[in-house]
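Troubleshooting log. The previous run stalled partway through. Resubmitting the same two chains, unchanged.
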Amino acid sequence: MTARDKARPLVSLRKITKRFSTVLANDSVDLDLYPGEVHALLGENGAGKSTLMKILYGFYTADSGSISLDGEKIQLNSPLDARKHRIGMVFQTFTLVPAMTAAENIALYLPDLSPVLDNEKILSHLDSLAQRYQLQFNLNLAVRDLPLGDQQKVEVLKLLTAKARVLIFDEATRVLAPHEIEGLFNIFESLKKDGYAIVFITHKMREVLQCADKVSVLRRGRLVETIDCSQATESTLVKMMFGDVEPPKLEIRDKRAEKEKDVLLELKGAGTAPTAVGTQLSQIDLKLKKGEIVGIVGVSGNGQRELVDAILGFLPLTEGSKFIRSRDATSWTPKKIRSGGIGFIPEEPLQMGVVPWMNLVENTALGDLETYALYGGFGLDWPGVAAKVEESFQTLNFEPLDPHRPVRSLSGGQLQRVVLARELGRDPQVLIASYPTRGLDVHSAAATFGVFAQLRDRGGAVLLISEDLDDLFKFSDRLIVLYQGKIAGTFAPQEIDRHKIGHLMTGSQIEAAEGGG
Amino acid sequence: MPKNWLSALARYVFILTVALIAYAAVLLLAGKNPILAYIDTFDFTLSSWYGFSEVIVRMTPLLFTAIAVALPSRAGLINVGGEGQLYLGAWLATWGAITFTNLPASVFIPFLVLLGFIGGGVWAALAGFLRAKGYVNETITTLLMNYIAPLVVGYFVYGSWRSREPGASAFPQTAAFVQEARMPRFFQTRIHLGFFLALLILFIYWFVLEKTKWGLKIKGIGGNPEAAKRMGIEVNFYLIAVMFVAGGIAGLAGMSEVTALHGRLRAGFSPGYGFVGFLISWLAGGRPLGILAMSFVLAIVFSSGSLLQITQGVPFAAINVLMAIILFIVLMKPNLRRLMS
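Second attempt completed without errors. Output:
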């Protein structure tokens, strides 16, 4: 790479503006991507990072502004256009066919696939690419049998075989374990050497400082600044991300009274039937005691959903038993479990928690109909529901929302508050929270954890399922690692480091982690 | 609210106008005079009390079958089986009518109503059960069960139930019901108790869905079954129950047709009321007043079918063309505001 090449940007975005109805997602953003550089796009959820990159990938068209490649203006109307200009993107959720092998998946994406497949040639080509960029793994395994880290390698190989020069990674580390993240950054290093331009979208400062050369911070659709990573520190980045509003700091760990605790929820040797699509649980021993937050650590798809469904009674136990406040609840119906004091925050509130076209009051009533029914169900106590909504929003210190707007018009954070208020309004003793902060901005996330702490301090318990190790370490009293439907270990957060957890999460050998920590 | 109302009204008028123009083109192509056809239709339906009363008679089964589609649609179920449920309701009511011939009318009629409801209800609940337990799509099952139901009726009216009366036995039909088993008629017309029963059920449909906790649950299931399940609502129970009630309502259409109008069960007695009910429910978007208005309009269309056969020589089946045109326009979901701008 000569100095001259470095001086000229490969891609230039100028004054990119994109509006979605009332939201200004990108407001006159400028960005230059240079070959041989990792350029991080940092910002809160909803800051406009993904939108900007989806414009570069031709997924959206900008309302105004221009894109040039190698100094020439280009028009990108579809991802196909972008691919022709050798721009490629790895999405948060991978776009692979699970039943096909990695090699087949990549072949499917090749622009000049011959009518009769020459598997040998494709494989040897892939092998050489994989070796060059440290992307080795078994190409002949079906994608569904590959760990997520390897699936990501498939995505990268796909782009490389399609000869992309600009590689965009959208929240690429979200589903990866710590050692896999390091692997990804090593891949970045070797790609850089060959002059690829890499864009790395993230909301985690630590990762930016670890792998990027330049960082551009976006806030509410505007570019705050682009700086060299050598000059960046966590505190400067925080300031750029949040402006003067610092995210609230939480003090929730120390207030607990240490005493002999009652067990609120217990699974004893619990297991479920094998399924075609999900994960089979087996030998799950889990105790949730009064006044504690227990974190479930694991890569998504290792039985988290099944564990929640088993606790809530949607998935019958085929072995073992379940106790709720010392009563045998193994064969209780979901309804009975719910009225037994278990609340639930689903992972996708809009899909699993609410009826989108109903309003806040109706959704709240729906969650607890027996309480609000009048005359044996022939009427409903709407004023009562509205009062309850107001009361729970107040108790939780949430800003009130218009109770008569359909909930689908609410933002992710507001929606999460609706579900939280509804579930906590029922005074649960146990709250099962699946990925409660996914897609939330920092303030909403902090509010959510504040609520969990309140519940814990009142003598309740929270089962926190998350893929955010930072959150899990910060807020859990105990961590339980779930791997392939089994418990791979239970720890106090202070007695284990991230790398050990990471290896337990992925079932890989500890020896590979030497020097980590 | 009134604004909503007006736009709904404008939508209906628009759809019907376009449909009538398109149908006029079809009539023209067939060498008939559409203007005369429309004048005849108006003359024989709306311009006289008798004509009007006949429209109400036609409207009665349509109301039932439309509600039978609208109710499940609120729970996210697509019930295409109104026709079959209508037949089975008529069938079970007929069994009651020809078996217990000694009952007084005050007991007999409610009993037949109950049988008609159960007949259609159980038939539809089968589809609901398969959907809830076995994940068999209810659209497919209800549709296919439509082909079975008339055969069930046929089996009996060609066989053991066939009338032995002189004259009547020439046709595949049962013996005439006793007078106590006939639903009363009113105003010296053929308007019968079934019409008022249908109005009552339409009111109950509105009340349950808008005012009660069960309605809220049904709408919740329709709006997001996954969330409903997670909020502790017994989704499977409701899927079956809603199908049972809907089928029961369709069954009442069949029951009231045979007990009030025909006085006996005939093979193939329904000219497709179940299917037209589906069309009405779609047109009305499940809204009670819309169902009322659209049933009325389609009852006129139906009446015109047999009428134009006589006056203009247009085959009865031609009204299927008109109904198909209406359905297509509905499915295109015309956006009036966009069309006008």
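Takeaways: Chain B has a mean pLDDT of 87. Chain B has one domain: 2-340.
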